Structure formats: structure tokens, C-alpha cells
User: Fold these one by one.
Assistant:
Number 1:
Amino acid sequence: MQFGFQIGTKVLFGKGCLITNKALLNKFGKKALVVTGKGSAKASGALDDVEEILKEYKIEYSIYDKVENNPSLENVAEGGKIARELNVDFIIGIGGGSPLDASKAVAILAANDIEPLELYKNVFDNKPLPIIAIPTTAGTGSEVTPYSILTRNDMKTKMSFGNEDTFPKVAFIDAAYTESMSYETTVNTAVDALSHAMEGFLSRRSTPVSDALAIEAIKIFGECAEALIDNNIDFSVREKLLYVSMLGGMVISHTGTTIIHGLGYSLTYFKDIPHGKANGLFMREYLKYNYNAVNEKINKVLELFKVSTIDEFGDIIDKMLKNDINLSSEEIQLYASLTMKQRSTSYNAREVAEGDLIDILEKTFLSPN
Amino acid sequence: MQFGFQIGTKVLFGKGCLITNKALLNKFGKKALVVTGKGSAKASGALDDVEEILKEYKIEYSIYDKVENNPSLENVAEGGKIARELNVDFIIGIGGGSPLDASKAVAILAANDIEPLELYKNVFDNKPLPIIAIPTTAGTGSEVTPYSILTRNDMKTKMSFGNEDTFPKVAFIDAAYTESMSYETTVNTAVDALSHAMEGFLSRRSTPVSDALAIEAIKIFGECAEALIDNNIDFSVREKLLYVSMLGGMVISHTGTTIIHGLGYSLTYFKDIPHGKANGLFMREYLKYNYNAVNEKINKVLELFKVSTIDEFGDIIDKMLKNDINLSSEEIQLYASLTMKQRSTSYNAREVAEGDLIDILEKTFLSPN
């Protein structure tokens, strides 16, 4: 038995947790930069709550609300420059995965005047500023991971960095902030969370503790599957999904992801398919591909979903996500080749050859129907 | 769903983890105090390994090896004074629960020249020195908790303190360092770990995450029960027990303990019964007492142990621990009364009255056999 464990984030989970624990915001300094996008931070009410608390504690703040969907290096460079110039003490990320991941990059760039490409060196002269994370979607888990996943236009994909100093110091995780999500975003992000738990569970880097958390996550997702399919998503389902998302984040903090994420990045980069949906579409073939390598664990996934075959599992995911994508042979070749370059591909249970990825892509996107 | 989660410790688990990750010791300063007892740190080989690494990195160090079994306030006050006078940068605790708990107190007292009784205020002007924890028993879980449990001679019991700054910064958890334990210590400490997981699982403060970890811990302990009874404890069993111990620590970091620990402290204080054994003896009556309040969870415990009744569970524990204690009515009255004063008693699943504790004590120690 050989493993590491580290979650550098203090988690407060539950309705009203930000207000109840607002004094925590007053521990990180007198000047903050709020990093967010245009949408969910406002719609969710989280930004209003944060502003109210910052005013109450007389903490100066600015808002950088230009985080793009799937933020680029150029995007976070702008946020980092603003943080550096304002000389803020800490960063508050509010939103889905994009703003939360961006806030980590901004926290590093605020403390280190480096080229954004140097983020990928993952070693910095100065510690990143403390990060507070407030998720408004239930999928990324970024609030409890050290990872920042940014779009690399030079590489035509998304790639991650992060080290033990980029764990958010505090995560306020309140399902009330996820209620403004559309049905599609709810489903897509939920499937992302499932993907984290499942890829982590089946990863070569899985640990006994990450497995215990992954099993809990997959089980709870299974309890929500019918509500997701039926668009019958009440507050208790939203809480469960947010809990699954947090667990998924804790899992991948130890395991990273594998080929589902690697393949999904291409669908997002080239076809603008939302990240969670991009992952989910690969799940059926991913499980079939890996079955012989980790059959006991995959049987456990099926048991947790209360199904007996991978196809039954795949059918559940298909009811959540519409596969309306057609890929050409050239696209399939390109995506497979880009996925082979992802470090995470080497952590997949079964050793991956480019032809295997082509096969998965063809079965998923070149099927007769 | 309302909960918090925080484990402020970076864990390295596995054979050779200290040597493999020795560079971590070089991150905390140039002067260390090693806090330990007379026995296990040396016998286990852990102290030798630590000294070798400190010499390699030219880190000055002193050794305070006077930690008592069940250390008193007076004991840690001496260690704290030495640390303060030596002006060390960090503390390395090596040993069972006693040295590890003492190292937390020493880390606080090194940075704060206060009366030891003020440790229980749990708020300190200066942050405690960083603590590195290396367990040599598999029971305490102290390597991943913020708690320091010291003997209060003024209160005639043991009481705990600790806050988020007293989590060890790094825990090196290697079953090789637990191989020098006697059979009795192995069993007693293992039962302590089980108690952490079980009390945490049944506590009013249990959380979804602590429950997932507790279930894993109880299941793995169950896998080791036969080996413990048969004194057939090979390295893989030692690793499992150390893993259970770590999980138990993570559980009680969120839940604290309940009446088993409260009652056990009296047996240890007045009768010198080892801590784990003192806990284990109460388990049968504890489960019966709480059954109606948390029957589903207790059924889960029995299922994880692969038994169908509480008495079958109790019989397994009885095969591990010899109940050779007789208590007078006066002693029972005193122990019940002292346990009522423990804050942890209020976290027990069933609301506890003093008469209930008397009943548990009588059934355990005044039975006809």
C-alpha cells in the first residue's frame, strides 16, 4: 500500500454556509480581487453575498468578470496583471470551472510577474495569493483541487497545472448558488463530476482513500440519475450533485483524470461541446475498452448504478446527453493524436495506443445511427 | 446537508515513505526538536531514520524523549520550555499517541509562553510551530488530527484541545515503524482505531465524508479481526491496521469521539488500563445502548464485520481483549460522573444521562461472570 493524501482546502458545505462563516473572508487581508464570468456569479446570488460581506468587513475589492468559457492563457494573463497592479491580498473565485480555474492562475500571476506559459512549469518564486472558491455549478470540483485547466491555443487543447499551494484555502459550497443553472448545464456539469469520480476510481493512480470517496460519489450520482433524466431536480438533488462534484474534486486531486478528459478536450476545443457533455459521450466505450484491465472496479461502478451491463450504464448517460456530433476521419485522427500527448493518458487503467483512441472515437461518433 | 471538511495534513503512506520523501523535512527550517518517548521511536527505527535525514540536511536538532504514557500538562510544559529556549523552527513527533499528542502541545508552547492550562483556551497569539508526525503504533490517528489529549490531574481525566493550526503539516505513515509493537499493544491500539471510526460513524457530528471514511475503516478492520485474534499479524495486516488508524483519525478530526472515549479515560486514569483496551471493553454495551437511536448505522457496522448481532460483534472484541477489571459501585459512580463532564458526551447518538453510563459500566464490569 503506497499512497499520498492531501486536500489543502477547508470546506464549508451547506445552505447558507457563506453567510454563516463569513468571518473567514476577513482572515486573508484588506484587498481582494473577485474573479468571475459574466453570468453565474451574478445570477446565483453568490456575488451579491460576497460583496455584502466584503463591504461589512471594509475589505477593498475589485471585480474581474471577464473570465471566458474555457479560459485561455491570454485571459488569465489579463486577470493576473490586474491583480498585480491592484496589489490585492487574496483572490475570490466565483462560478463554474472556468472562473475557479482562472482564479488559481490569477493567484499565481498576481504574485509572480511571469509569462502565462510559465504557469506550466508549476514552480513559482512566490506563493500564489490565497484563493477562496465558491462554485455555482456542480461538476468541476475545482473548489477542492489544486488544478487550473486552461486552453492552450498553441497546443490546440486544454492543459492543467497546479501544485499544493493552489488548493483554494476555503471553499464555500452551497447548492443554493447552483439553482440558477439551466437544465443542460446541470446535466453536463453533473456528468463531469461523475467522470472525475469514475476516471479517478479506474485510474492507475487511484488510492484506497480516493477509491472510498469515488465509490461514495458514484453511488450518490446513481441516486440522482432518474431526477437528471426526468428534469426533476429539486434542492435535495442539487445538494447531492454538488456533494458528488466536491467528492469528484477530492478524487482527482489524488488521481488526476484519464482518457475521457483527454478526448473530451478536443470536442470542446474544436467543436465547442460543453466539457461535461464531451466527457460523458465517451463513457460507454471507455468502460468497454478498460473492462478487462479493471473488471472488478467496473463491476462495482455498475453495481453502484444498479445496472448489470456497460450498455445499460451507457443508456442512462445517453438519456442525459444528446450525441449529435459527427466527426470525419481526419478529425478522429487529430483528436486521438492530441489525446496521446496528454500526460493523463498514461494513467489510464489499460495502456493506451493511438489506435485504441481512434477506435473509441469511431465507435462513439461514426456509428451507423 | 451541512458539513465541514478539513484535513490540514499532507499524508505520505507506505513502506519507505520517509526516506523517499525526506526532502520534505528540509522545508521547515534549520533547527528541530524531536519529541518522543523512551521506547518505540528507537525500537521502530524511525528515530534513526529521522536523525540520519536531519544530519544529511544539516538541520540542527535536539531530542526530548521524556514524553510519558498519557502525558500530563506538566510533561508537555517541560518539552515546550525546552523548545522555546532552543528556539527551534519545527517539531518532529515520533511514537504512539502520547508522543504525537505531546508534540502538538510542545509546538504551541514553543511559540507561546503561556501556562499549560491555557492550552485549553484553544486560541493562541502565535501559530504553533510546524509539526511533522511519524506514528509507531496503529491506533491513535493523531498524525492526521488536530487533537492533543493530555492528562488533567486537576480534573482526574484526559481532555483534548487543538485547532486547525495543530494538524501536523506532514505525516509519514509507514507500517515498518509499527513492527516493533508487542502483540498486546498491537491489539489495544487497533481497537482504539476501530473505536475512532465507529464512534465517529455513530456520532451526532458525523458527516457524509466522515461516514464514507468510517465505513472504509470499519470494513478493513473487520478484514483484520481474525489475524488480530490469532496473533497472526504480518506486514500486510500491519499496513491495513495503520490505514484504519489514519482513517479513524480523519473521521474524528470531523466528529470527535463520544462516550466510549469518555468512559475509557477513567479506566486509564484510575486503573492504568491502556487507552485502546479501555475503549474496546465498552463497545458491546455502547452499541446496545445506542441501537434504537442509530439502528441503520449499527446494522451497517455489523454487516461490515460480517456478523448479525451486537453480541457476535462483542464476542469478537472479547477475543482480542481480556476483561479483567472489577469496579466498585463508588468507582462506577465516579467514572459516570466524570464522563458526563466531557464535552464529547453530548455528541453521542443517544442523549446521555448519568444513569445510562452507570448502567453501561455495571453491565461491563459488574456482570455475574
Note: The radius of gyration of chain B is 20 Å.
Number 2:
Amino acid sequence: MEKYIHKVQYYETDKMQFTHHSNYIRFMEEARTDFLEKVGFPYKRLEDCGIISPVIAVNVNYKKTTTYADNIEIEVKLKNFTGVRCEFEYIMTCNNNIVCTATSEHCFLDNNGKPISVKRTNPEFYNLMETLCEQNKN
Amino acid sequence: MEKYIHKVQYYETDKMQFTHHSNYIRFMEEARTDFLEKVGFPYKRLEDCGIISPVIAVNVNYKKTTTYADNIEIEVKLKNFTGVRCEFEYIMTCNNNIVCTATSEHCFLDNNGKPISVKRTNPEFYNLMETLCEQNKN
Amino acid sequence: MEKYIHKVQYYETDKMQFTHHSNYIRFMEEARTDFLEKVGFPYKRLEDCGIISPVIAVNVNYKKTTTYADNIEIEVKLKNFTGVRCEFEYIMTCNNNIVCTATSEHCFLDNNGKPISVKRTNPEFYNLMETLCEQNKN
Amino acid sequence: MEKYIHKVQYYETDKMQFTHHSNYIRFMEEARTDFLEKVGFPYKRLEDCGIISPVIAVNVNYKKTTTYADNIEIEVKLKNFTGVRCEFEYIMTCNNNIVCTATSEHCFLDNNGKPISVKRTNPEFYNLMETLCEQNKN
């Protein structure tokens, strides 16, 4: 899968001259959105099915700084998926150096905020995600 | 009315070493929220009444730079109010220097996104706003 | 010139379900950065020459709402240029509807924060900008 | 130590109606800034001494959602400190419920981006931090 590219904007830098660390969490979301589009199940479609998938944890390791106009390449992998929860892994590189590695965990909720298993409520999404998860393990 | 104070955060600065200009639009929203609380009609209460009030225009003049840990004092005035639209005026100072002046214009919509006059739908809010607007003109 | 496209991210929406108005100021900066790249004088190169160009005013009119996953097309024009100041104009469309129109004004400073005319300090940039400005007027 | 309070702003919410998860990283920075001020060594003073302290890792667990106008109380503790690295711990509550727990790790760099031990370069800061760290362990 082609990597997602985020070009660092001026408003994403801080007075240390680097990309502010909080923005990488946003780049993760951008890359995740892009991943779901590329595999054919955009997040918007999940929402249209009455499912939201909030972030329940993030772990981010900042390896090297980036700055204005840098192109950060982001590789996204589905690391774990149970139908109730899932975990994505991110490897961000810039000029072939790893600048950041991260994971994010998510659950699935219905429109009333109740946790659900997508296995029952959305088998098409479930099967797609399970397949992608298996592919990564091999 | 006591001025709203925004302390500039590190994540609000950019690689020019100053507060990024886009953040002043957010400081305006913070000060507006604070203004509505102080006059006794928090924006949240307006939303609970089924009214939203989107921004339809902003005009911002940046006079001096500010940076990390600066305390920006923001004076908010209700400049115009018709029940259908309203306009706020902002004067931001830091260490007694004017750093930014701005205005924002807003309309009122019901939950279906239809423009409304709050004169009919919410007379209590209408009367309060009209009084505040008159006071500023005198 | 090809329009700049900003795809609205989830983190750019707010609880009204729409793109938060403050983000359009950031889209303007993205489009301006892209404009300067396309005309062959990236902003980074200006900074490398010891020139910064802070925003001194923005005027934004919000015409229609946008939301998550919308593609906003942004047309940028150099409206005025004197060597001491310049003004950009932005027309943002989404699905062929104008969603936002805006202008931004900028000055030029040296690394000590002193206002300069780029006519003397950077004639290559001056000539390019003047030519672009003339083209827009015709 | 009095907890730091962050009042959630409208621009910090997203179309799920909740505070966007990326903003908690920024609340951590605000609370950390406030912590250093309260113990008498503002981060600005560290920068004035030629020391910067970038974030090298964050771990965030989102327990409950918050939304517009919520007051999030943030308790900050210095969990580890070696002079070369330090780790802060954050417990965020809202209406007496834990909404988020997190840690952040930091190193210390000189103005050339070279890692330093503050034990040698800034013994006053070193002693203060070591004392605070010991207090937390007891």
C-alpha cells in the first residue's frame, strides 16, 4: 500500500523551530483515514452505518525532529482487530529516516455511545479488517 | 466587565518564534464564550435551546507579535445586534500594548440549519443582547 | 494555475459537525505556501534569504459549511504587491459551491524584525511577484 | 499542589461532539508549563538558560469523553528524573471522574540540539527536580 504523505505546514511548527509533537497525533488520524479509504471502507461510511470509533489510547515515540515543508511518509498497519477493539501501528519517515513510531487503539460505539462488536453489526467491515489484520501477521 | 486573559501556550507558537496568527481567531472564540458566561447566557445554554450561532465573517488586524507565556488581555464588545445577526468587537492587549484588533459576525440557525430571528424564538436572549448592544453605543 | 486542494480532517471539525471556522485561516496558509512553490519561490527559500513575511491582516467570509472528508479547492491570487506589503485573495469551493472567500495582507521583515522592501533586498523575488500581480490585473 | 484547570473550548471539540483526542496532548503541555511555574522554574527560564526540553514519548489512555465547556482538572507529577531525561505523569478528572491518564518523557538539549545533563549545566534546576521527584516517591 502506498504510504500517506503529510507535508508539514507552518502552523504545525513551534518556537523550537520543529513540528510540534501534538501534531503527530493528527498525522496518525490523517493516515488512518487514508488507510480506510485505500482499503475501500472510508471512515465516513462507518459513521453513515451508525458506528463511531473513538481513540482509547495512543503511544508515540518521537525519534527525530521534522520541520516546515518536510514531507513525512506514514506507513499504517492494522496490528490487532477483535471486532470490539482494534490497534493501528504507524511508522513515519522523512528523507528515509524514521522520525516517529506510534500505535493507536480504538473501540466501536453505536450512536448512543454503547460499545458494540462490529462482527454482528457490520460483517462486511469485520471481514475486511480481519483479512487485513491477518495479512500483516504473515 | 473584567477582560478575558489568554496565556499563550507553546503549541500556539510557530517557527517565527511568535504566536501563530490563526490562533487569534480561537482566542476570539474563547473571549466570546467568556463574555456570554459573564453576562449570564452561556453559549451552551443557547445550544440547549436548539440554537447554533456560526461565524459568518472575521476581520483581524495583527498589530504586534506575542509569544510563549505572554498574557493576552481581551476586551469583548457587542457592536451590533439585530436578532438575526450580531457582531462582536475585540481589542487584545499585552503589557499595555494593543497587539490585535478584530471583529466577528454571526447569524443564528435552528437545528435544521435554517436562519432564525432570536427575537421570536428566544426573547430572553434577545432582550439581554439588545441591552448590551445599547450600553456599548452610549 | 492548478488549485490547491485541502481534504478536511476529522480534527478540523467541531461539535456543530462542520469544519471549525479558525481552520480556514490555516487552509489559506497552506494554499499560499503551495502558490509560492508553484511559481518557483517557496516560502522556505525566502526564509533562507533572511526574510520573514508575517500576516498583518485577514478578512474571511464564510459562505457555506464544509465537513469531514470534503475536498476544498482553493484558488489563490496575488492581488496587490508593493515590495513592502502584499495582499493575497482566496476563493474556496467545494462541489462547485463557493464556501469561503478571503484576503490576507503581509509585510516583509528582516531577521531583526525590521520592515524591509524586497525590491532592494531580493530583486528576483520582487520581479516575480510584480509580474504575477500584473498578470492578475489583466 | 493546586491542580491545573483546562476549560474545553468549542474549537477543541469534533463532530463526535467530544473533545478531540489530540488536544489532551496539548492539555498535558499546558499543565506541565503550569507545574514548572508553580515550583518556581518556568520553562521560559530554562530556555533563557539555553536549554530546550523536547518531548520524546507520550502515552495516553482515554477513559471517558469530555466536551465543550467542561472543566478538566489536571494533576501533574514528576515520576522520574535523571538529569538527562525526565518523565511526567498526568491524571485528568472532570466532575470527579478520571477522563484521561497519561505520561510524557523528555530529554534536555542545548541550543545546538546536543543532549545534555542538566546536573552540570544547571544544578539549581537539577536539585529542584530531584527533590520534587523524591517527594512523589514517598
Note: Chain A has a mean pLDDT of 96.
Number 3:
Amino acid sequence: MNTDCPLPIATEQTIRLGHGSGGELTQRLLRQFVLPHIDNAWLQQGHDSAALPIGNTQIAFTTDSFVITPLFFPGGDIGELAVFGTVNDLAMSGARPLYLSCSLILEEGLEMDILQQVMASMGRAATATGVQLVTGDTKVVERGKGDGLYINTAGIGLVESLQTITPQAIEVGDAILLSGDIGRHGIAVMAQREGLEFGFPLASDCAPLHQPVQALLNNGIDVHCLRDLTRGGLATAMVELAETAGLEFWISEDHIPISESVQGACELLGLDALYAANEGRFIAFVPAAEVDSALNLLAAHPVSREACVIGRVNAVAPRDRGRVIIENTLGCERLLERLPGEQLPRIC
Amino acid sequence: MNTDCPLPIATEQTIRLGHGSGGELTQRLLRQFVLPHIDNAWLQQGHDSAALPIGNTQIAFTTDSFVITPLFFPGGDIGELAVFGTVNDLAMSGARPLYLSCSLILEEGLEMDILQQVMASMGRAATATGVQLVTGDTKVVERGKGDGLYINTAGIGLVESLQTITPQAIEVGDAILLSGDIGRHGIAVMAQREGLEFGFPLASDCAPLHQPVQALLNNGIDVHCLRDLTRGGLATAMVELAETAGLEFWISEDHIPISESVQGACELLGLDALYAANEGRFIAFVPAAEVDSALNLLAAHPVSREACVIGRVNAVAPRDRGRVIIENTLGCERLLERLPGEQLPRIC
């Protein structure tokens, strides 16, 4: 299934699948080969979308290419994913998602029926989230130079809140909230791809997240940072944020909701749900005093009905900054690492 | 070189290379399979970028995926193209290009050296055009599921001018200006791809166009419409604009500059330069009374030094609207058609 070496090698000469994992190899690729040529203050923010001034308006801008295989999976498809994924990246900046672009890279031989289904799905997802697909592009590549259909969406949102929602705004004492159970997208896609059946239902969590986020912001919760969990799972998001914020996070494995289906599948396959991909889950950093209000607001939205506190931001000595400690069910602590290589490629 | 049937078939069941031509097949694909699901007022404008209100600011938003082969060609590379192409689409709305996203789809096995060269080229192109690459994404696909490297850029520009620059703003009596000689990008890429050598220099016209456009707008030229010439060439752009505007255009083949190199290559290969791709040329529709001022302004910029008038917008009966008449060197007139299928795939 995955022949890619999970151990990072320091001097890569060519691209490997793990470079697309969203984990350590992706970070190294960007640091070594991309950022030296195009660095600027916005990229350094290390955020899901860039907050930009334009005229006298503040906007959020983000992009994502979707190369998932298979195109249709339990709980969603590439079209829905391409809309929700970009909507979610905008929401994580506290922006109201407004406009999306849609660029298609089609492989010669793709069936029109498939294109039709995917576009219908994009249309429904756009309507459901209140965004407009306003501009697009279509390219075709020869047979054997694609995988049916790749979609890029870029998105623009309006930043209405005056709060600065960035990793740098996270404070010691903040509570870490998780919006629901983890790992369903990654495990459902893997099961579909490999033709595995577990005897229990498994569906992606693919969903838009802008409504619970807007609920927090509109009701005055002092949200410090938001991050949706995608490639690399909860673990990678936590480590990235701890490093960017320069703080220590402590989380409890006991408090992290994992469905029986995902837990069962992970045990059978020898995977760790902490690293499994999600497409409809996020974490929020809020002051401890606002936890109850925040959880009440999140509980009112189906997508974040089971939101809970999974940890906190610790005051630590400078040498311990940038790390994540996880306490397991036996009360033992260990350091959490980001996904090194690739658990499962082509997940989004 | 190109085994794709050039004749459109009415009931396609699968994607063919011609669907990516930017010509008639692309239009039909969009009409039949894409627009029914995601239509809105912005897509109906049929413009290179969408002009959008956000807060109390007017912005332009556009996207393009670049799948060109080879990645490096005489006069440019995919990185430069990905920046200039999106900058040009923004410029054609009269917007000042400000921010770009950059999404990479990398094929397993791509050499890091190539990625490094392309990113360096993107960085230089961004600096040269004054845009910032503010957000990005990196995906990796397995060997045989890509072609080395695909790049998507989306772009945001600030619309400062109060002029409405759209196909609908074109008026009877307008002069049609062309910014320089045509066909160099398409012919240079074809020559490189096929290993052809002609004994005369051939290089892409790949270049940013925002400066001559800003010069026209800042100096009060009443620009009605702008369009950069890309896939499908001058002919396809003219036909698309005539149809969208619902007007008749008349152009003279004698007045269209074509370099000796391109003319020679076209004669050898049996191609028509009117349909060859460009990446650094545009047409402008301006009132006849402002032609001299416009040409003087364009002449001051190297990229549009040889700008000239190639035709005009005619007053015609309703039944003749939406067509383009071209007068050849013998004084005979014929109707111009858009590129039906595909002259050369993967050109941008």
C-alpha cells in the first residue's frame, strides 16, 4: 500500500510520496527548496490562510489542490472536499468565506459522467456553505499524466472580526478544544482504497466548519487560534502550532474522542488515529475562563456537537518551548512528534 | 505529435485533449458539464478574472493551472509562466496585481534541482511584477500520475479604476489594438517539444502585461475591454469577445504583426499563427479618437513597443452580431472561427 520509507533522509535528490504528507518531510521540502525563493511575512505566519490588507479591507486568501484517490469515498467526494477544504482554511483565519476559484486538471479519457457528478457535488457544497465559485480554469493532460481529475480551489474570505487569530496569539493558560472525534476521513479513504470491510460503518468526517467558528466569534469568545485537522492528523497540527507559537502544549489521550470504528480499524491495521487525516475537525485555543461558553456554542452545531477540552498551554522554561506532551491512558507522558513521512498518500 | 481529432463531436463520453484547447471544445465542455452546476453572474461575464466586491473594496480574482511540457522552453519556464499568466489575467480586468497563491502538484521522482530552478524562477517573476506569493499548498502524486510538476496560481488584484473593463463595454466604432507580434509562445514550445530547429531564433513571448495596461488607465485612456492572448491564439480571443459582446469585429491580416521566424515555422509545419498560443500579448478596445494616445503610451513599454491597430468594431444588423471578419492580404474577407479542437496540447 505504501512503499515509501517513513524515515526522513537528510539529503533527498528527488521527490518522494512523503513530501506530500503534510508532515516533517513536507516542512523540510518547503524550508529547503521553496521558501528560500518566495519567502515573505505572510508565509512566515505559518497559518492556513494569509490575512491581507487590500484597499481598506482585510481579507483572508488560501489555496489547496485536491489529488485524492479514489474520487468518491464513503461520506464524500473530491468535489465536496475541494469546496469544504478551502472554506475551512478561510474559517480558521476567522474569515467569512465568500468566493472560490475552481481549476480543473482533467486526464484524457476521464468519463464525462464522473466530471458531471463531481461538478454537481461542488455546486451543492458551494450552495450549502454560501460561497460563490466565481472564476475557473480547465486543463487536459494526456492519458498516464494524471489520475482522472485534480481540482485546485483558492478562496477569499472577509475578515470582520478584530481578533488576531494566529499561532502567535496563543497564550499560556489557554484551553485546547477539539471539535469532535478524529481520524474518520483517513481511515474511511484507506478502507475504500484497499477494499477493506470492517463490519462496522466508516465514513469520512468531510464537512464545512465555518458555522461553529462564526458562532464563537459572533458571541464574543476570545479565540486565540484555530486549526483544522487535515493531512498528518491531530498530532501534526499540534506540533506545528506548538513550534510556531513557541509554547508547550499538554494534551490527554483519554480526552481525545475516537469512534469505535476508527479505533477498531486502527488496531487491525496498526495505525495511530492521532496521525490519521480529518476533513471536518478543528482545534481552538481559548482562554480557560471561556471554555464553558465556547463548548455550549459548539454543541449547538451538528459538526461540533461533541466538542471537548483535550488539553492546555503550559508555562515552561524556554528550552521546553515548541513541544507537545501527551499523557496516555495509564498516566504516562511522552513527547508527540509530527508525522515523519507518509502514513497514507493522496488523502486529500 | 497530436493524435486528437480536430473535428468536434457532439456527444462526447470522455475527456479528449481538445477539451483543454481553450477553443470550441473547451467552451462546450464548460457549457454542458460545468456551468449547469456552478453558474453565477461572475462566470457569465466570460472575463479573464472576476470583479468582486469585498467589504467596501473592489477586487479582481482569477486562477490558472499550468501543465506545460516541457517545463523549460526557449524564453521562459513553467514558474515564470505561472506568475506572469495570473498577473496578466488580473491586468486584463484593469486591476493592480497584488497577491498570488502557489499550489504545487509534484510527481514522485521529480528532481529537486528542477523544483529549485522553477521556484527560483517564480520568485524572480514575482519580484519583477511586484506581487507577493502569500499562500501555498504542496501535494505529491505517484510516479505515472503526473508529469513532473503542475502549478496552480490564483491571484488577487485591486481594482482602482472606475472604468468597467468587460466584453460588454465594447462599443461600435472602437479600434482594436494588438500589443505586438503573435504566436511566438506556441511555436517556440512546439519547436522545443519536437526537437525542431529552424535556423532562425524562436523564443516565447512570455512576459507580464500589467505595466502597459496601467499606463493606459493611469493616463485616462477610456479602455473598454482587454484580453490577453493565450491558448487558441488571437483568433479564438477575437471570436470569444465578439460573441460575448454581441458585436461584429473586422480585422485585417495585413496589420497583424508576425515575426519572420514564426511565419517561417508556421509555413513549414502547416500551422496558422492566428491560432498559435501567446503568453505576453494582449488586445485592447479603445475609442477611435484615443488610438494615437494609446499607441504612444504602449510604445513606451518594451513588451508593447510594436503595438498597432488591427481592426475595428462594426455597426451591423442583429443577425451579424457575434462574428469576426478577417480581410486577407488579397483584400478578400472571410469569417474567423475559434480553434475547434487542439492545435497543440499542454501549451500553458
Note: Chain B is about 30% helix and 25% strand.
Number 4:
Amino acid sequence: MLVKSRIKYIQSLGQKKFRDETGCFIAEGPKIVQELLEAGLVKEVYALNEWITENNQLLAGTDTFEVTEADLEKISQLKTANKVLAVLNQFEVTQPVVEKRLLLALCGIQDPGNLGTIIRIADWFGVDQVVCSEDTADVYNPKVVQATMGSIARVKVFYKNLEDWLGQLQATTIYATVLEGADIRTIEKPASGVILVGNESQGISPSLQAFAQVRITIPRKGGAESLNAGVATGIILSHLT
Amino acid sequence: MLVKSRIKYIQSLGQKKFRDETGCFIAEGPKIVQELLEAGLVKEVYALNEWITENNQLLAGTDTFEVTEADLEKISQLKTANKVLAVLNQFEVTQPVVEKRLLLALCGIQDPGNLGTIIRIADWFGVDQVVCSEDTADVYNPKVVQATMGSIARVKVFYKNLEDWLGQLQATTIYATVLEGADIRTIEKPASGVILVGNESQGISPSLQAFAQVRITIPRKGGAESLNAGVATGIILSHLT
């Protein structure tokens, strides 16, 4: 049985305010928690007896609490709790490294599922740094964490005033995904640079577009008005990496 | 004010059983309903006074009911009702045309949001026929309709026993997206064919893979284990169309 104060503490990590105060966040479900344990990133594990037994070796050295299904339901942010919940320390705040790397910069991606999906896509294509505008969803939001499917362990996510940050970059090619740009399939694969991805309804603001040297487009053949930001990012990275 | 029986009827269209019985489905929100009205596909419109006034011309000839915000909340399947709900007749059941066309075939895409997103992506790339296995989500599910963002008006969706259907195809190249196939970026763009897309957890079943002449893969550079089915479909179509 978990004591009430502990349940309340874990529940509070669903809210950004408390995540910021404590410097912690949660991840749930066997797959993600196993990946995070393997990466040595987990602070505490709350799990059903069966899961603890199965993952005994992986849990060595990690504070582990056995919980009942009822308690797990209480602390879970999922519709249906899934065997295990981990509490993690937020990652150290560092600075993005731009030299000889390809980075993504996200302009106001507010849907947590979209942000998580984009982090997972970046990870698939080996892009390990994502710079977010300050109005992008919080990477430690449980919905973002779940949607990354474990990629949060491998991709560094930064929050910046993008105008300031892009303004300071030197000798870096900046790509903007826009409606009227060069066909993505004709662009040479860059060894380094920053790819700006806009949000679905507004795209990339003109003040950010002004930083781009290369304007790129995913050519449309049919009637749909737009592509989801995650899908567009996947297509762009599949052509540029 | 809508009478109770009418409210109950519209609410019932959230369930497949009643959609099948009535042959109807619903779509919501100004953008999708406008697209469907323009395409001449709408049977009845339930909307707030302001929306009816703004869209008077578009509504000519369509049965239109003015509703209060309270009534709209009751009949809506959205978290927050959005000005207008349309009832539509389900599309006529026809047969897919394979000659000189590129089609998608979906194997067990059960998440309604994913199915809707894939239909929208197909529409973007000019693929106007999607053949679904019988265990794929129902295209008339309100969540699918919303996720298509109007593309449901332009893309024909069929439900088939895929083994029977693929078995009958002649002189058609079948592509399967698998983990160990040819790099998608090296495949020649086909003028026609069927692209099989698997579901996220199980991929394409071996019995369906057996029909494929070409096995294709989206090469992975990083650590993510998989891509979302919608994202994968977008990448494949951006390379093959």
C-alpha cells in the first residue's frame, strides 16, 4: 500500500507546475520503463509484484516499490494503468551543439502527442537534438513522454526563444518547411543545419522564416490541405538524412 | 430545440451498429462540413444560428436545423462541440480499381486516429483508394472522420478480406513495408501497384507478406524501435509517388 502523501506526490507530476518544482517526471508501461532503466535514468519504480519479479535484474540499484493494481490506477496518468510507473529526474539543461549536426527546431508544436511523435521520428533518423520554441508543449508532460515510446532517453530537447537562438547561429544552414518552397526531393542531403518545423495551423511565423536560407516543400498531388506536423517531419527527415 | 428522439438518433451514430443500420454517419466542425457540403455529400446540417447565417449560400438545398449550444453539445462526439454537425449518407459500396493506379492496403490499423491520418496522407499524395482488412477501424467512426480533415470526401475506402483480394489480383506489383527490405530511397517510383501497410505492433502478417513481390524498408539511423503507421505511410508515399 502506498501512503496517501506519496500517491498525491506522484499524481502531482501530471502538472507542469509540480514537475518544475520537483525537477521530476513520470513514464509508464513496461516498454518505456525498461528502456529508461537500461539507460540508467530512473529514480524510483512503482510496479506490480509480477513485473518486479520478471525485471529483477534490471531493477538492481533502483528504489522499487511494489504496488497493488488499485494503487497503480491511482498514480497512473494512462486510461488503463500498465504494470509499472517510473519517476525520473529531469535531464540536465545543456546547450544544443550545432557544429556538424542536423537539428530540428519546432515552432509552437502544442499537441503533446505530436511533440512526442516528432521526438520518436528524430530518434529513428538519428537526429538527437530538438530545439523547441517556448510555446511548444512540455517534453515532461506524461502524454509527450508516452508518445516518444522511449526516445526521450536518446534525444535531447531544448527550449529557446527561437529568434534569439537562430540569430546567434553562424555558418549554419537553416531550412524552413513552407508551402511554396523547393521540392524536398530535389534538395541535397545536408551534413549539418537546422530544420524549422511549424505548427499545423499557423506554420512557421514570418519572423522565423526570415532566418531560413533554404525553403522546402513536400509536393502535394491530391486534395488534402495539409499534413500532420509529425508526418511532415518524418517525410522531411527521410529525404534530408 | 431538437426533439429528444432526434438527439438520440444523432447520438446513436457514434456506434457502428447504428451506423450500419441507418447507413449514415456524422462529421463535425466548420472546416470538414464545408468541404463535405461543397462535395454535395451532406444529408442534414445541425448548426448554430451564426454559422448558418455565414454559410447560407453553401447550405442551399440541404436540410438545415438551427440548434442551441446546449443541443449541439448533446449531439456532438467532440470534447468541445464546434458550431456545426452534419449527418451524411455512407458512400456507395464499389470495387477498387487496380489498373494503372497506386493503392494502399491497410492490415489491421485499429486506431481510428491513425486510420484517419493515413486517409489524409493518401489524399495529399493523390492516392484515392485505400483497401482495408476487415479488422481495420471503421472509416465512419467519428474519430476517423475527424482525423481525415475532409479527405474522406475524396478517398474511397474499401473493406476486404485482404488474402482473398490480393490473391485475385493479376499483373499488379504488391509492395510490403517490412523491417528487412530494400531501402525505400532506392526503389523506382511505380506507376501502379498496391502498397501494404501493417499495424504498429504486429506489422504485416506472414500470410499477407507472401503476396508481395517487393519488400521495402525505411532505413533507420537512430535508436527508435518503430515509426507510427501514419508517419511510415507518409514517408513511403513521398518516395513512391
Note: Chain B has a mean pLDDT of 95.
